[in-house]
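Duplicate of #3305? Posting structure anyway:
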């Protein structure tokens, strides 16, 4: 006799594809116009100098230059200061 009865099918086992989020160009690297700097969900990193934010919160360069990240204290909605990271592209002279 079989040790276990028929197993049947399972409803588990499905998983979605990874979204490949994260930093694509790091500080000190050269960015061309249109290059993606950060793919993110929500504005964890904000757009700084020569950087724009796409509709899916992706940060991309609008000028040729070197990528850098800076931090700045900004007041949130309730007036409490919060440390915020900005992505910048310094134009090549």
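Output from current build:
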């Amino acid at each position: 006799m079989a040790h276990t009865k028929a197993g049947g099918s399972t409803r588990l086992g499905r998983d979605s594809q990874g979204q490949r989020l994260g930093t694509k160009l790091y500080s000190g690297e050269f960015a061309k116009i249109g290059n993606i700097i950060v793919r993110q969900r929500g504005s964890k990193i904000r757009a700084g100098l020569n950087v724009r934010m796409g509709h899916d919160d992706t940060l991309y360069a609008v000028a040729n230059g070197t990528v850098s990240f800076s931090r700045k204290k900004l007041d949130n909605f309730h007036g409490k200061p919060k440390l915020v990271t900005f992505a910048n592209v310094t134009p090549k002279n």
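Confirmed duplicate; merging threads. The first strand starts at residue 22 and ends at 23. The two ends are 81 Å apart (CA to CA).
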